[in-house]
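Researcher: Last one for today. Full complex below.
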Amino acid sequence: MKKFLVILMALSLMVTSVFANGNKEDKPITIEFWTHEDANRQLLEDRYIKEFQDMHPNVKINVTRQAATSMIELVQTAFAAGSGPTVFNLSINDEYPLIAAGRVAPVDYAAIGYKDAAELEAAYMDGMLAPVTYEGDIYGLPLELTNWAIFINKKVFRDAGLDPEKDYPKTWEEMADISEKIAIRDGDILIRRGFDFRYPYYLEAFVPMVEQLGGALFSEDGTEAIVGEDAWVKFLTFMQEWGPNGRNLGSPTYTNARSLFNKDNNDIAMANTGLYQEARIKNDNIDFYNSGEWMVVPFPVFEDAVNDVAACYYGHYYMVNADADAATQEMAWEFIQYMLSHGEEYLETVQIIQPTKALMESDTYKNMPYSDVFTQDFARAHIVYHAENSTEVNALIRAAVEAVMLQNVEPKKAYQDLKKAVQELIDEG
Amino acid sequence: MALMLKSKDKTVSTKTKEKAVSNERIKPKRYSIERKEARWGFVFTIPCLVFFAIFAFYPIIYAFITSLTDRRAISRTWSFSGLENYIYIFTKDNGGFPLSNSIRATLVFTLGTFIPMIIISLIVAVFLMQLRKNRQRAFFQFVYYTPAVLSSVVAATIWMILFDPRGLVNQFSNFVLGTSGVDYNWLVNSTMLQISTMLVYFWKYIGYFVILFITGLAAIPPTIYEAATVDGASRWKSFWRITLPLLKPTTVMVSIMAMLQCLKTFSTQYMFHQGGAARRPIDVITMNIYFTGIRNGRLGRACAMSIVLFCIMLILSYLQLAFTRSAEEVEY
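Model: Here's the assembly. Have a good evening.
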């Protein structure tokens, strides 16, 4: 009998160890966390990671940081090889194809302390989770939702004989004229630029310019690409005039304006960027930040604009790999929610906006310098185009702008090539 | 008749016997020292063969299979689509970046880079061999070779700074050409942009090929030059009649290596495009493969392009070898 009992106990132990899922606090969990570089955010998140690991001794978080422009290539390649990160963030236009392909897991509402999707949506500003909602489920939580306005260096304006408070550009035509006044050249070479565009981000900052003129990326039914020939040709003509073959006000081959702006070296007067730039100015050049010699104004429109559209807002959403096991997914969402529960700290330190109702209505946000400009531009803007082909569409608009600016191709020809190429994309499906 | 058959049989059996005897005589050769050594040699090459099989042959076969599918980077499933990808890349625009333009960009880059590189690296190598002091030669070899040690990305980044409108290259061009404030549009104008990528590649790899030529030159016995000098040959004549013909195997090897390297160029073009330069003028095949496969996620299509590139490299290497077959006949 004794022998029988011993065997029975041993068997029961084996059975429980084989079939038990184990407590999520006991099972070792490794989270591979990939995110883009941001010196200010890194300090915060390294601390959150440490705190989270202290709270969950069985969890190990390996963080990998890469340049924002390389992230899509790295994440996509990793997924293609079947070894994507557990938690990652990308711009929404790069993330959407992953949702559509079923490579990311829906939010675990219980793990982040919400009852269901409706309760989670209610915590955020209207429509902010729409870009990551797919067939009724939410697939990401916003790390940041950003729109861009125009940062101005007042000293450079005054140096060019302009009054920044009065003379700042309200239209794109004024932007070109003011940039002409500010520009200093050594022959053809620009020593000081007035303004220059953010060239790799065509969907975010260039498509709204076309929309102001009545054009669109796609027709409403989605069957026709690059709609509104006049608007596109006018936009491409404007860009050609801006470039080295036109009025020579700037070019993608110069150092990007946003990086130069913080240095306050009298080489750029205006840059197109988000609220987070304030934290970066503070970080890179505290004297310039404290000098009060910078200001932020709304995204301009064309003089004959038919739509008042500001730069598109875009989001970086934290997502979880659908291939991770259930316990890791649950822990990953818990980890994301732990980081995002520090919304005010993110805003104060990094100046990125996590668009929860609580944060947007907080004094912290309202007291941020020029937060009102960004809020007003949010109201004039829409989310950036995001679909399975958004990366390809962005590359094609880039090619069209480069063709007119750098290769001096006729705007109409560039428009026709662009329309043909994007149409081919959507026809292919 | 029967006698004849018998005698024939006899002849046959005698021949067979002779053959058997001669075979017995040959047999011990099978176990000769050379054969044993060759067997060990084969054993030692096995790890290398396995390495190549895993990291070279397998990816080629896998890429070929993938090129026959509609596989996308992030989709979980895919199906065989036959030759659809090949038909597509040769007949369609590939979203505005057609393969035909990439073949053009690759060939322009290859011809514009590897021919001058071979000629100049040979001249530099001959010049270095003329230096009497070994220290001087070692110094120049070091100077020429240093860029080859740099990673391609670092090299491209350095040159992007130099090619910036306010950078050193514009300043130098203005100084040399006696102009002031002229932007030579190194990264803007299509032709200049292509020349810029060639310059970077040339700068980076010339030292490597100089070293290869120096090795080839060092292998030519000095007695041949001595004999030529005694016969009254000038240096110029010695170069054309002795150096060049005897250097043929090295030249063939270097030209094939240089050509293949140029056909595979990627980093410089990619970095320049990332830095704001237009893509179309420098959209070499490897870059198109990268954007199609990695950025746009169309793996099947990208693999079809890589197989096309593989075939181009194979054909050009074969042609180069065929035209220079006599190179193997060189004997000192």
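The domain at 84-329 of chain B is CATH 1.10.3720.10 (MetI-like fold). Chain B has 14 helices and no strands.
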